[in-house]
Amino acid sequence: MIDKNQKTIPEFLLESQGVDISKYDEMFLRKTVFRRMTETYCTTEDAYFEYLKQSYIEGEQFIHSLQISYSEFFRNALTFSVLEKIVLPSILMKKSMGKNKEVRIWSTACASGQETYSLAMLLKELTKGVDEKLNFRIFATDHSESQIIVAKKGQFHESALSYLSLKRQKEWFTKEGNIYTVKAELKENIDFSVFDLFSKEHSSPPNSIFGDFDIVFCANLLFYYKPKFRTQILKKTTGSMSADGYLITGETERDILIKSGFGEIVPQSAIFISPSV
Length: 277
Ligand SMILES: C[S@@+](CC[C@H](N)C(=O)[O-])C[C@H]1O[C@@H](n2cnc3c(N)ncnc32)[C@H](O)[C@@H]1O
Prior knowledge:
The chain is α/β, with parallel strands linked by helices. It has 11 helices and 10 strands.
């Protein structure tokens, strides 16, 4: 979409707000334009572009609408079930036989922390009462500082816990009114930090010192980006994995990995091994 001066919305927003949205997928941007048109009662794309040019606040609002941070505990039941029953037990078995006893995980776009805490619950449960030297560390990152602040707090409204069994709710949370707070015990193996997957300086979160991750979660963000930038993210994440590591995406992003030559370990699980393995 262009205006009379042949300027596109991304070009206009770069100039007016200093924010580069050119990496986002065309379709995703179009859907955002249509959403904003409805919200602002603009009946045509041209009318919306004119409104955007007149309202600095609408520019901020448009950029804000691109920050989709929806998440759920144990999002994609099949993924978490294969993790619990196959992937994590096999990693833990290998670690218990080797010198390096630490399972290393990178949750690359953790949003408000549901994915990270779900993983921590599984690992706490699976390592309880086994080889006490076995340990795990989850590096949870997001490019949004505000999301990391929320994730670190670990406070959730009761409606966010509807996919969690009562047993897990009782074991891993304290309750006050309708707010559930993650217990300190569940946070102790997690390192939250701000990290942009397009960082040119670092190949993995600096806090992790070196990558070598057994599992990298890269779920529900690839589809927001143009194919060229999805490839950049996949290069970065696979580059930080151990040789026999697993890459996990969202349910709707499986096709992107399958087309890039990744092998899905169980059909529909969204858990992949790298094409080079
Ligand atoms: C829809 S949420 C997904 C949360 C979680 N992974 C899940 O699947 O439930 C997408 C998250 O990706 C983050 N994100 C988008 N682009 C990113 C980037 N370039 N680097 C790091 N995080 C990014 C957003 O801030 C947002 O919190």
